[in-house]
Amino acid sequence: MLPSFYHELLERYLSPTQLVTLKMLVWLLQTQKEVRIERLAATLQLPILQSSRRRHIQRFLQIKALSILVLWFPIVKEVIARHLKVGSQLVIALDRTQWKKYNVLMVSVIVQKRAFPIFWTLLDKNGASNLVEQQQVLRPVIRLLKRYKLVIVGDREFHSIELAQWLHCQHLSFVLRQKCSTTFREKRQPFQSLDSIPVQAGIHLFYPRVGFTQKKGFSRFNLVQLGVSIQTIFVVE
Q1: 65, 13 contact by CB (below 8 A)
Q2: CA 69 → CA 74, 79, 158, distances in Å?
């Protein structure tokens, strides 16, 4: 059910009993496809009362070893090492999704055209994330994967020049999709909005080292417009 290298890593942090519980819960999640303790307790194959099974699951989920940094990061690092050589380019996706009542800000790695979740946090609010929250989920991932050439990608929620500047200061490459209302300025030219760029099917435009703000202290970045629509404009570094 779990790859052999998972067992080698998990055995370092979990007792034999805890490892068996984890395997059983993983199997149940794959078959039941429902993340509710009551439902898992009802189907957990242990010769004890359902109330006892529920408390067993609750105690297991509270152990300190079940930490993203302690348990999950070593697995992520091993999985990536099995697919890519150190120094290879690695695409990191920053995304936010509203799942029922939960607002989840997530960082994933793209491996073989699949998004592999690495780190996430639950925002205690509705709506878009801010720069501080984005930095908080990116920092652990950047430290974990510092031996690779990271490229951070994000949709229009992550269009801010402040995020681009911060990534630039971390010596990271990035591709951030822009809102059509974003303004930019070529050298010795006035500011103009992105929706003023003419769109021609099949024609891609590249604007090197343009400014995105009148504030001082910000670097210039490249602007790319794909010949599909005004919505496919990216800031790249």
Answers
A1: yes
A2: 8, 15, 24
User: Which amino acid, 84?
Assistant: L
The CA distance from 195 to 180, in Å, is: 5
Sheet order of strands, 233-236 included: 114-123, 102-111, 89-99, 149-154, 173-177, 233-236, 221-225, 205-210
Beta bridge partners of 210: 221
Encoded tokens for 88? 């290879």
pTM of this structure: 0.85
Phi, psi of 84 (to 5 degrees): -135, 145
d(C-alpha 99, C-alpha 45), whole Å:
29
CA distance 70 to 215: 41
Q: What is the mean pLDDT of each run of 10 residues along the chain (237 residues)?
A: 83 92 89 83 88 93 90 91 92 92 94 89 93 96 96 91 92 88 83 78 81 81 72 59
Backbone angles phi, psi at 109, to 5 degrees: -105, 140
Query: 120: how many CB neighbours lie within 10 A of its CB?
Result: 15
28: closest CA among 37, 19, 17, 18?
37
